[in-house]
Amino acid sequence: MSVYGESQMISGLGLPGNSNLETHESVDTNSKPYQCSECLKNFSLKYSLVLHMRFHSDGQPYQCTKSLKCFKYKQKLKTHIRFLTKEKSYQCSHCQKCCNSKWNLIAHMRVHTGEKPYKCSVCGKCFGHNRSLVTHMRFHTGDKPFQCSVCLKRFRQKGSLVAHMRIHTGDKPFQCPECLMRFSVKCTLVKHMRAHTGEKPYQCTKCLKYFTQKNGLLTHMRIHTGDKPFPCTECLKCFSDKSTLIKHMHTHSGYKPYQCPECTQCFTIKGNLVVHMRVHTGDSPFKCSECVKCFKQKSALESHMRIHTGNKPFKCSECTTCFSHKHSLVTHMRIHTGDKPYKCSECLKSFRQRSNLKTHMRVHSGEKPFECLQCHKHFTVKGSLIKHERIHTRVKPYECSDCQKCFSVKSSLVNHKRIHTGDKPYQCPECGKCFNQNCNLGTHMRSHSVVECLKNVKYLVKKAA
C-alpha cells in the first residue's frame, strides 16, 4: 500500500506526501517539536515557527506595490490590499455586513452570538476579540507601548497614537457629507452625523429619554442614582460629570481661557463666550413659536415658554409656592433662611439678590443710567423709567376687573382693589385702627405723635410753674 493509502487509513484524510503526513501526525499527537530560541514558545509546524520569528526580527518581506507599506505576513498584506481596493469578500449571514478578511468576519459574528471567549485573568472581564483583551490587560499592567515622537506622550493603543498625531499634523481626514465639517477621528464624525440625522440610539431605562452619545446617557443616569463621583478638591462639592467639575474649578483658580475678540471680556466656559458673542452680532437664534419673541440662549427660550404654558416646576419646600424659574426659587428660599449674601462695601447693608445690591450701589455713586427720551430725566432703576414714561404716553396697562378703572402702576391697582374687597392690612400698633394703604397708616401715626408731644409740653409747663 502506498504512503498516500496509509495516510487515508490512519486519519481518514487524503494527504499527498510524507511531509504532509508528518505535519498532520504532529497536530494529531499535539507534538510541538519546534521551539523559539527567543521566548521558548513551541510550535507543531516549522513554518509556524518561521512566521513567529518575525515578531522578534524587524523583517517585513511583504510590500504593497500601491502604498509601499511593508508587512511581516502575507495574509496581512492581502487584508491591506482589500482595504485599499475596498474589497469586502466576507459577508455576515445575519446583518449582511461585509468584512475584508475572514478573521474580521469571525470576530464580527460574535456580536450576534454574544460569544466572548477571551477572559481577563485579573478581573474576569470577557471580550469577543483577542486584541481587546490585550489592550484591556494594559490597564492592569500600566503598559503604554505607543509613544508620540513629538511630545513623548504614551498610549495603550496604536489607534489612540494615530489619532493623537493628527493634533500635531493638523490632519482631519474624516469629512461630514452634509456640512463639510472635518474631523481627526472617525468616531467624532459618527457622533456629529447624528446632529443631521436626529438619531439618538442610547435610551434611559428609567425615564425613556434618548441620547446621541453613550457618555451622555451615563451622565444622565446619575440623576436617577444620585451618584456624584467627581469631588472638588477645594470646597468638596461633588459633581456628576468631570466636565462640570473642570468648569467649577475655574471659579477657584480664576482661570478664564475663553476671550471675546471684540471686547476682550474673558469667560470660564466656552458656551458663555458663544452666548456673549451674540451681543456683538445681534443674533437671537431661539424663536418662541407662540409670540415670535427671540432669545440669545436656548435656556432663556425654555424659561419664556413657561409663561405660555403656565408651568411652574420649581416648588418651595417651606410654603409650597411654585416658580417657573429655578433662580426665582433660590432667591425666594432666602426669605425663609434669612440669607442675604450680597453685602454693600460702603454701608455694609445686605441684600438677597445681586441685582438689588447693584441698584443700591447707585445711591453711593449717584449714577442714574436710565434716561427719559422725552424730558431727559434720569433714574437709577429701569423700572422707575418705565413707570415715568407712562406719564408721557398716558398708558395705563393695569385695569380693575370690578370697575374697569385703569392705572399706570401695578401697586396703585393693588391698593385700589382693597376698596372693593374691604381689605385693610395696615394696622396701627397704638390704637389698633386698620387702613387699606400704608401711607394712610403713616398719616394716622403722626396724630399719635402730636398727642404725645402735647402731653409732654403740658407736663413741662406744669413742672416749671
UniProtKB/TrEMBL annotation:
Q: Which residues form the C2H2-type domain?
A: 34-61, 62-89, 90-117, 118-145, 146-173, 174-201, 202-229, 230-257, 258-285, 286-313, 314-341, 342-369, 370-397, 398-425, 426-449
Q: Which UniProt keywords apply?
A: DNA-binding, Metal-binding, Nucleus, Repeat, Transcription, Transcription regulation, Zinc, Zinc-finger
Q: Which SMART domains match?
A: ZnF_C2H2
Tell me where in or outside the cell this protein is found.
Nucleus
One Gene Ontology cellular component annotation held by this UniProt entry: nucleoplasm
Among PROSITE patterns, the record links this protein to: ZINC_FINGER_C2H2_1, ZINC_FINGER_C2H2_2
GO-annotated molecular function: DNA-binding transcription repressor activity, RNA polymerase II-specific; RNA polymerase II cis-regulatory region sequence-specific DNA binding; zinc ion binding
InterPro entries xref list: Znf_C2H2_sf, Znf_C2H2_type
Lineage, opening ranks: Eukaryota, Metazoa, Ecdysozoa, Arthropoda, Crustacea
What Pfam families would the database entry show? zf-C2H2 (PF00096)
* Entry-linked SUPFAM superfamilies: beta-beta-alpha zinc fingers
Annotated GO biological process? regulation of cytokine production; regulation of immune system process
Function field: May be involved in transcriptional regulation.
The organism is Cherax quadricarinatus (Australian red claw crayfish)
Q: What is this protein called?
A: C2H2-type domain-containing protein
Similarity comment: family membership: Belongs to the krueppel C2H2-type zinc-finger protein family.
